[in-house]
Amino acid sequence: MEKFNCKKCNQEISEEFNYCPYCGEPLSELAKQKEAIRLQNAGLLKLQELSNSTHDPAVQKAIKELLKF
Q1: Domain ranges of the chain
Q2: Which of the two residues, 20 and 55, has the higher pLDDT score?
Q3: Are 66 and 47 spatial neighbours (Cβ–Cβ below 8 Å)?
Q4: C-alpha to C-alpha distance for 50 and 63, rounded to whole angstroms
Q5: Does residue 20 contact residue 6 with C-beta atoms inside 8 Å?
């Protein structure tokens, strides 16, 4: 197995890892895609929570439009 240094924490790691075992940085393309989806989902959940917590119909409508895709 070849080794390289993590771009985030600079620790030497094996290429077999999808995530850096020291800092958790996504290393493989699949891990990077999963991280992007996780962050997108977290943002969508925050928008949904904001929509549920506001009583302003205009704000609720705007957020619900953002949540449609």
Answers
A1: 3-67
A2: 20
A3: yes
A4: 8
A5: yes
